[in-house]
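Ligand: 6-O-phosphono-beta-D-fructofuranose. Inputs:
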Amino acid sequence: MAWSKQRLEETIKERLGGSKLLIVANREPYIHVYEGNEIRCMRPASGLTTALDPVMRACGGTWIAHGSGNADRAVVDEFDRVGVPDERAEYTLRRVWLTKGEEQGYYYGFSNEALWPLCHVVYKRPQFDSEDWLQYRRVNRKFADAVLEEVGEGPAVVFVQDYHFALLPRMLKEARPDIVIAQFWHIPWPNREVFRVCPWQDEILDGMLGNDLLAFHIQYHCNNYLDTIDRTLEAKVDMEHFAVTRGGHTTMVRPFPISIDPEAVASCLPSNLEEVERRLRKTWGIKNERILVGVDRVDYTKGIPERFAAVDRLLTNHPEWKAKICFVQIGAPSRTHIPSYRQLNDDLRAQVEEINWRHGQNSWRPIIFLNEHHNSQQIHAVNRIATVGVVSSLHDGMNLVAKEFVAARTDRQGVLVLSRFTGAARELLDAILINPYAIDDFAEGLHLALSMPPEEQELRMSRMQQQIADNNVYRWAGMLLSEASKLIHVQQSVGELA
Ligand code: F6P
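Predicted complex:
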């Protein structure tokens, strides 16, 4: 039987019994912002929130996150809680407030200038700053206090998200050995040679071993993690059962490739698609050119300069595509408080300007760079009308935008050009796989995609759609939380003995 929202809801109810379900993630799924005197509710550009919001809507529970919107405080109750997505309140969002100093050190600093480049291995040197590290530790403690408050006295399963909270699992386990703690690491885990440069590696690894279950997207990242532990900490690493025992506590390490809800994507498509397409083409000044699309946060891991360089090379090596194609890049600005991210936005604008000047003819421009936030309806519509979807990350845990492109193709047309360095490349085998560093090959991949006959497009797209339908986000959450829930009774008896 296929996994659906309803099946997940039933499974979780049955498996969790009386235990509460709590998610901890830095990013909140709904952000409240002022627009003049009005308050608007926004969705962030984040694969994590896209994947987990439908799960919480199915299961209920509490999502604990940093309240980052300027109107967030205005809508919460006295316990800093608000029901989301709207007045129907399918689950509770508990907001944690951070000072500017905490946000700077924990989020921009240690999470995104140290751990992010360290785990992605994209030749961006991680910055290790001891003040950032202190803030990271302090904010993990702050979240631990909020989680313990929300857990109360009873049994609970706490599902921690990502690299912002490497220390949190240990803090929770020390306070409450009886609760089940699982963590999903949404980004890659590097090999041990790369990780060992981190000055606080012992504390980070030990913090993560507070988990009962630690999950990555793919087996390769699990192996890297186990290998890192083996070389760094005093712990028993069991390579046969993929488990680590330290101080009498065992952490299981497992792969769970994350996914999306493809039906939700399809149902988001406008019914008046032709009219929407006409409007978009008019706004962008695109006539009959075929559209290639990229959708990303502007991040140096996403391979956006390489993508533009490949379009440039395509037009040089295959001038027959001139005035016949247009690359539309939706690039939501992200983490712009960090200088390298700010710089990247500027560099991309300059690169587009240069390529458009060199190849442009009359009103035709080869690349349109939309350097602003777009909502999911707009993104799915562009994915649906494009001929080619391009995902060229230099290294990525999964890259859900690849799955979203496939899910939007209700016409079973379109070709996905996908970096072989993404988790998605292990599942979407009918994409044209490229190495984003090899610009000539990348350009040939684009040429192949643009030249693919409709019958082959349909065959490949159908197979990828089936893959995503069989392995949707409800299955991901169902399998992961079922694995975690097997430990409820074990942890309760440990708690009684403690
Ligand atoms: O998947 C990695 C991730 O950092 C998520 O944790 C996050 O939600 C997403 O990318 C977007 O980044 P940010 O929350 O820093 O804007």
